[in-house]
Amino acid sequence: MKKDKKIEFDDVIGGNISKELTKKEHDSIREYRRRLYEKRSSEEKINDILTGFRFSLKNYADNENPEDIILLGQFLNSLLKQIKIKKGAFAEYIDISPRNINKYFNGERKFSIEHALMLEKLFKINAEILLEVQLKNELIEAKRSHRGEYDKFNLSDLLAI
Amino acid sequence: MKVLILEVDSNELIRGIIKEGNAKEMPSVKDAWQFNFNKHSLPKDKTAFILVKEDTPKIIEGCMIFSMHDTFGPFMDYLEVAPHNKGSEGKYKRVSGCLIAYACGLSFEKGQDEDKGILTFKAFSNNEEDQKKLEKLYRDKYGTVMNPWGYMEIHQNQSRLLIEEYLGDEDDLA
């Protein structure tokens, strides 16, 4: 029996917004959003920020060919700004000298496995994803700066020795 | 972002990827799609995302256009699954769910303050009765709420559930 080919309700969503919102509508929508936001607890607001942090890291980790390199430190720096934690306080909390924290944020120094395990507990994100982002960036940089340098290596040559 | 879509024939989950698409590869009405994604993705403030299977990266299974709306913040302008995935004869399911969940993730990443984690979109239909049905279906399947101005919204807690279901995030630790 031939199945019904009619499209399903979520096969197509959206379309042109037929009319522009008026200033009055815009203002009342913003007011509505502000009221919703005020009802959210501090904990919920931080949880929302953490969800965005986790999503952006996972999205980046899954991207095989990112156009721009985003350092793990940049992700963390952005998160700290959003949850209003000072870099120095964060550094001390995870046993990094506050004087050196910028070196971690700009990639000059690498976060260790121990750091990743601390961050896992703090921000509820797998340490594996954090380290994956860091390693992935190192690999991209190495490939870009040593282009062709490793082409000479092949198994046949090794077997012929 | 890695996702899993359901192959209807085998009832197996298949690996897929959601990634940014460029205007040149976007489908249009000429390819039997309802929307001209090639044109709709051109404005600088719009970003198009495509869902492809890992083993057939040239075949688009679904498209979605996301933007930051001046009033609503995170906004899903268009979403459509490929013609071969539409209806009860569609080859793959979960395509729209994955794309919606991805847009929810973007709403947490890109939304600021009171808009963070709220995804807005418009349910369109030709007549009022169908429109009501559509809104009910969105409510039942995706937990959307309609705001007083007739736009559908997916709020934070529901967004997280969709992310968990379709993107496998909000990992075990959360």
TrEMBL record, chain A:
Instruction: Spell out the Pfam families in the cross-references.
Output: HTH_3
SMART domains assigned = HTH_XRE
HTH cro/C1-type domain residues: 80-130
Under InterPro entries, the record lists: Cro/C1-type_HTH, Lambda_DNA-bd_dom_sf
Transmembrane residue ranges: none
What name goes with this protein? HTH cro/C1-type domain-containing protein
The organism encoding this protein is Wandonia haliotis
TrEMBL record, chain B:
Superkingdom of the organism of origin: Bacteria
What's the protein name?
Uncharacterized protein
Species source reads Wandonia haliotis
